[in-house]
Amino acid sequence: DSEILMHWFEGGKVTKKELKPFQIYEFLNKGNARQFMNSLILFLRHTGHQGLILLMDEMETVVTMSTTIRNAAYENVRLFIDNSETAQYLHLFFSIIPDVLLSEKGFKSYDALWSRVRSIGDAKRLNYRGVLVDLHQTPLQTEELLDLGRALRTLHGTSFRWHPEEMVTDSVMEQICDSQKRMGVISEVRLFIKQLISILDLAEQGTSPRDMDMARQMVETRQQMEAEKMKQMQPTWDS
Predict the structure, then answer these.
(1) Global pTM value
(2) Contact 202, 212 (CB under 8 A)
(3) Would you call 53 helix, strand, or coil by DSSP?
(4) What's the whole-number mean pLDDT along residues 152-170?
(5) 224 CB contacts (<8 Å, ≥6 apart)?
(6) What percent of the chain has pLDDT over 90?
(7) pLDDT band for position 239 (50/70/90)?
(8) Whole-angstrom distance, CA of residue 107 vs CA of residue 114
(9) Strand partners for 94
């Protein structure tokens, strides 16, 4: 019984007959999604949690979708911004690139959403409580990148059941930062993350970081990122 309930809770396919013993009579849909979200937050509060944080990545992929799908996605973002019922206990973060804001098929193409974010980026001083926060105005310093790297290293070790700190030491991460400084890209957090993950993957498979060319690997990682960006931004036929 608990498996059925968890399956429904995760958005899986469950029949109404299976849900009836739990006094659940609805499936998640566009009409009740907001109510479900509010109920989830109230449930989390009831179980002792402070609230809910949702982290959304790859928002730029929406730009390449058809008009119908794209507008539906933008409407969902608008609804989250306007949701005041549980705003105190819900924080939603989208990771986006400038193209999502400025391109013809970005936020600007959907007036209901654009009207809520268009003036946010004009301020000279950064407002961390604003709807839109430009992280390029506050690039991470080396020590902050190292803190991020340590957290990623721990996650990698947990995921693959090994001890990465024995091979991928803090000194290795400092070398990554030094390479970025020499190339003038120290503020590119994504580049740091992708290179570190690549090093962790290779080290877990037996390749020592001492045998790696950090500068060359950084160039290759950056080229890979550019290729991924170009692929994501490839246009598709609008329906």
Answers:
(1) 0.61
(2) yes
(3) strand
(4) 95
(5) 194
(6) 29
(7) very low
(8) 5
(9) 56
Rounded mean pLDDT, 12-28: 86
Which H or E element spans position 92? Answer: strand 90-94
The secondary element (H helix, E strand) that includes residue 93 is: strand 90-94
179, 215 Cβ separation under 8 angstroms? yes
Which of 130, 145, 147 is CA-nearest to residue 185?
A: 145
Residue 55, both tokens: 């982290």
> CA dihedral in degrees (111, 116, 119, 124; nearest 10)?
-150
How does the average pLDDT of the chain come out, rounded?
84
The model's confidence at residue 232, banded by pLDDT at 50, 70 and 90, is low
Q: Are 92 and 80 in contact (CB under 8 A)?
A: yes
Rounded Cα–Cα distance for residues 120 and 118 (Å):
6
Q: Domains of the chain: which residue ranges?
A: 1-30, 34-137, 142-232
Is 4 in contact with 18 (CB distance < 8 Å)?
A: yes
The total of other beta-carbon atoms located within 10 Å of residue 3's CB is 9
Long-range residue pairs from 189-195, CB within 8 A, at least 24 positions apart, any chain: 189/135, 189/139, 189/140, 189/145, 189/148, 190/225, 191/218, 191/221, 191/222, 191/225, 192/145, 192/148, 192/149, 193/148, 193/152, 194/221, 194/224, 194/225, 195/221
Distances from the Cα of 188 to the Cα of 86, 144, 181, 191, angstroms: 34, 13, 10, 5
